[in-house]
Amino acid sequence: MRKIMLPVVAMLLLLSTMLHAQEKVDMGMMQKIKDEEKNNSQITTIAHNITDVCGPRLTNSPGYKRAIDLITKTFRDWGLVNTGPEAWGEFGRGWSTEKSYVALKQPYYQPMIAYPVAWTNGTKKQITAPVILLDKLDSANIDKLGADLKGKIVMVKTANINLRSAAKAYSTRYEDSVLNKMPDTYMLNRKQIDYFVPLVNNEYKTTLYLQSKGAAALLKSNSSGRDGTITVDGTSAYAKGYDAPLPELVITREDYLRLQRMVTDKENVQLEMDVQNKFYDDDLTGYNVVGEIAGTDPNLKNQVVMLGGHLDSWHSGTGATDNGAGCIVMMEAMRILKTLGVQPRRTIRIGLWGGEEQGLYGSFGYVKNHYGDPKDMKLKPEQKDVSAYFNLDNGSGKIRGIFLQNNEAVRDIFKAWLEPFADMGATGITSSNTGSTDHLSFDAVGIPAFQFIQDPLEYETRTHHSNMDNYDHLSIDDLKQAATIVAAFVYNAAMRDEMLPRKPLPQPERFIFETDTPF
Amino acid sequence: MRKIMLPVVAMLLLLSTMLHAQEKVDMGMMQKIKDEEKNNSQITTIAHNITDVCGPRLTNSPGYKRAIDLITKTFRDWGLVNTGPEAWGEFGRGWSTEKSYVALKQPYYQPMIAYPVAWTNGTKKQITAPVILLDKLDSANIDKLGADLKGKIVMVKTANINLRSAAKAYSTRYEDSVLNKMPDTYMLNRKQIDYFVPLVNNEYKTTLYLQSKGAAALLKSNSSGRDGTITVDGTSAYAKGYDAPLPELVITREDYLRLQRMVTDKENVQLEMDVQNKFYDDDLTGYNVVGEIAGTDPNLKNQVVMLGGHLDSWHSGTGATDNGAGCIVMMEAMRILKTLGVQPRRTIRIGLWGGEEQGLYGSFGYVKNHYGDPKDMKLKPEQKDVSAYFNLDNGSGKIRGIFLQNNEAVRDIFKAWLEPFADMGATGITSSNTGSTDHLSFDAVGIPAFQFIQDPLEYETRTHHSNMDNYDHLSIDDLKQAATIVAAFVYNAAMRDEMLPRKPLPQPERFIFETDTPF
Hints:
The structure is a homodimer of 519-residue chains.
Chain A: H1 2-19, H2 27-40, H3 43-53, H4 62-78, E1 81-90, E2 94-106, E3 110-111, E4 114-116, E5 127-134, H5 139-145, E6 153-156, H6 190-212, E7 217-220, E8 248-251, H7 253-264, E9 270-280, E10 285-293, E11 304-310, H8 320-339, E12 347-353, H9 361-370, E13 372-373, E14 378-379, E15 386-391, E16 399-403, H10 411-418, E17 428-430, H11 439-443, E18 449-454, H12 459-463, H13 476-495
Parallel strand pairs in A: 5-6, 6-7, 7-8, 11-12, 11-15, 15-18, 16-17
Antiparallel strand pairs in A: 1-10, 2-3, 2-9, 4-8, 5-9, 10-12, 13-14, 16-18
Helix pairs in contact in A: 2-13, 3-8, 8-13
């Protein structure tokens, strides 16, 4: 058998090489990258530092600043150049919780799981107050309650009284068969944004109105949360001119439904709470953090291959999967390449962005400063020197392929780049778009920008923006695989003769996440 | 086809009737029971009252007393007779939490999910203290730390650093095919108990030693907990002569592992906590609650058919699936029968038990008072008048069949009784034993006592003894099905000419859960 089979295998290998004859891949270097990650991975250390040690990384808040400092130091220790924080413009205020205590006090005592919504006020002191049920969060319903609202803890009636089912697994992986057929994912269009932003701003204004009527606090919950997991984000009050609303607390779905049943029963339900939040006004500037491995080819070293993800997080967890994971992987990819002593022809630059959760602000600001503004499409000279930007921000799942973002010209290149990693599960190439994260900022000014396809694991079901977005919900093996593949992609992009082919320049328009008002 | 098939179906039906010719089932009444539950179910009301309204029902604690009062009133409202609390002997002290606040204070602030272990002390006042890691919870390791322990929050090193997988569904149901082959379940033998109790008592004594050395608190976690769900039980300090140990707090697995990583890293980790617990010494007596529908056959009304489950719960949830579910179903079965105005030949008696979680104390005490002590097998005259005891205590899952508890003589009877409910999924009869709950107290003195087979749902994986054991984790449809079937079983047992056949009387021995020391 062996004698017969060998020539067939050789022929197939030759055929495969011919098909991508134009795209050379340095298989020796691919193996070195795999070996470095397999034998000397620093993923657990980086992950522990970014999550446990820094704590929550809400933009412009102490944990975010700890992360910027820690990463700057790490980059320097690794020997990266041109590293450090880089201001991108005005973000607004930082915010953190200094104390958060919420409990059911009447008709009996029980501690409750609760987290303050970011950029809301605290209660000033410990309070004990009755819970009141509002039919709908609007000014008419607030007015209907009148003076009854004063000093009360408000909750808004929900009609959705069943927990999400536990009969399906919370953590899943993609079947191989779907990878090449991945549809557009996380895409929002201008119309959706223009519909969505006024709603959010309207809710924000209603909470200010509720505050003006003397309500003590507002309780919230998320219909998909269960088991002690709750999803918490923030208000617009990070931005200058936006006042902080009354204390808003997210509690478990189970407690929310219990309180609703009890208040509906006309029981005397009282909560005890002590919530102290702090705003940071000292520096409203937003920062990213960057670092480079300098290019070595005299003709190409002014060209750049970029990789990144957002560093900021929400605050009830430690932003492990959103988007510690992306930062950990991109940092580890840089470490692998630096440790291997690669001499890239183009410069390799990592950018970890702030303010993503409020509207991709950090990456958009960076692009605007360096490459141009999509609104008028007046591009800066550096725009033409960025070969590609690679992003990671869909949780802790390993890389299963890549979204082409409708750039069909890169298909065969990426096919060749993925081939050495087929045995690690990364085989998918889909022409679709994926949205809602920082590659959009680059894509908007015509720079080839890509987000990888990642196994979903429990990202959408459990960790995304939740109090369970912490180290122990990371899949370390998945992150190792992703770092290996990202290092390879970045290396290939830095070494090939040509930059990556580009799509036609988009029409000038407002950047998709740019709005008149913050949200 | 139809003409040919019909006689075959008729023949099969006839055959089926003949096989159980000796066991008559009143199919009209079965239908009435089904209809009453389908059209007028009170399951949601009872469930809401037992869980949300009463709160946690830790034995001899305020929530347990609220439940006894509420159920007594409910039974009276329904027209049950001989109802009310019934003392069974000395249990010990009640206990409740009046305040429970735990947060990470250094190196950054974040609130933590935590619940005090029952029958432990509080912190007296709010404290901020460093966390220290003990290699093992024993006196040698405590001595090794010496004066370093004073004022510290202690945690014990765990080697198990991975979360339970989320790749399997948390809520499951049995395949039909396994129902007749269910193995022995939840069974503990004397050897296991005699091994287990000294371990528990040793841990208890070690915590007293830790307290004597001045440690501020002990942190615990459960290796199977995740997502914000934590499992909390209690110490032996409910019993007279057992001192309360230092504050013990159960925290999430995620926080526990985070703290362990940070303390191992030699970071300065400090927690802020304020835990106020209260002991209730005013009445050490343990109580069950009972109620009856009186028998009407002059020759049989002194005989009794019993149904029940334990009413007490742990305290971090509201004991919805353990064992609110069993109480709700048994109460609803009584309500169905009373509402239908059945005239049972035998007396039907419901008993809801206390102190089950500490060792089946309430049911055992009841049996000892009324029917005899398994230690000497000196039986009281009433023992011979109990036809059967039916128990429910395996969560919120619907009834899929019944454990015969090795009493093969009842197999054909139960087969006939289950037949009208095959379309509701209850088809399984297994000769196996199931343990760890109150039917054992009856079984131990020779009374036919049975636990139903129930779909597992998320009982073992999520709710059992956890902070998620609350109303919203009940499956209302499953409880309705169970109430229907229990009402039918109890009715059948009360109406048939003979009592249920008995197994030979067991040999005198210590009751399985009876130990020299509480645990």
